[in-house]
Design brief:
By secondary structure, the protein is α+β, with helices and mostly antiparallel strands. 18% of the residues lie in helices and 32% in strands. It has helices spanning 21-27, 48-57, 77-84, 132-138, 163-170, 215-225, 236-246, 289-298; strands at residues 32-36, 39-44, 59-63, 68-73, 97-103, 109-119, 122-127, 145-148, 154-159, 183-188, 191-196, 205-210, 231-233, 302-309, 319-321, 329-339, 344-352, 361-370, 373-384.
Amino acid sequence: MRAEPLPLHHFRKPLLETPFDARTRALQQNDQFVAWAGYTTVDVFTSVEQEYFAIRNAVTLYDLTPMVKYRVSGPDAERYLNRLVTRDVRRLKVGRVSYVVWCNDSGHIIDDGTVFRFGAQDFRVCTAERQLDWFSDSALGFDVEIEEVTEAIAALAVQGPTSCCVLKRFGLSGIERLKPFELGEFVVRGRPLLASRTGFTGDLGYELWMRPADALTAWDELMAAGQSRGIRAIGSQALNLARIEAGFLLPNVDFVSAEHTVRVGRDRSPLELGLGWLVDFDKPHFNGRRALLAERQRGPRRQLVGLDVGGNKPAHHALLYADAGGRREVGSVTSAAWSPTCKRNIALAMVEAPCFAPGHAVWADIYLNRELVWERRMVRAQVVERPFFAPERRRLTPPADR
């Protein structure tokens, strides 16, 4: 098949635009964009604070289109996915979504994502980065078809306490009956739309999946439906703050794919990342099972944990020590933030055994830039359980009508 000729001067605009670009670009006040999976997306619209508080107090729209999407179908689709991921896909019912990870033979994570089940042998896998090579290599011996459908599906995350109310006004009658990790098919003024009760904020929220041709109309109608509920478009920085509070992991921040690590010992297993609950040793063989079983028997040497850090200065990239004198390094911070909702200085950190036990104290080496001068502070931090923020409304069905 001959490749289509590239547009003249395509190099001047190397990133793709999502179907919502005309609306998001018009709302952008800071000219702050970031690249995600080959698309240009908004980092901040107005201010991180305004967008964050909209997540926790109102309703927000986040352009989710760059999320890489694969359709997995065929006679062996279930068997293939069950071999690929660590979770038992056979237990996933039609109309449900499951959070999963997949590993190499050494038990180290390649990536994480979500699996949507539409039928007995019809699935969609969503990931933050492209995985077609790994998926295709893992499909050898299976009668399965893997197709990337990223550009064929526009997606919006609708998150916040008033999200359900806004979606009902938008036209999704019955959306309030959707349980966490459940799918629902709707028709809004003649336009088909798939809704899932999923999200990356740890709050009440939904994700909408639609045809690209319907994207701008859906955006405008959602904005109109949410006008009285404080609806606001948000960028990646506000979402990142919310996901840290929820204790969610971000690829290339809290872990690096085993496919991309260069130095020995930098790859991570699900057990080290606190994702042991995603590993089902009772199901048939899956990639990395033997290595993960051995790791479980000997116990992980390190683990990603939550930290409650003293003071109010985020411990960005701080090294962690066993004592205030900084004599023995025991880990490092991967994500950090001052939580406006929890009123706590929180962090996610990779900590060596035995210091990762809940209640254990470590010391964070924090550097602060004050009036162009760097100051060093050794601050006490305590290992705590994740998530830091978990409101009841995130699982309440039906949600409160706000």
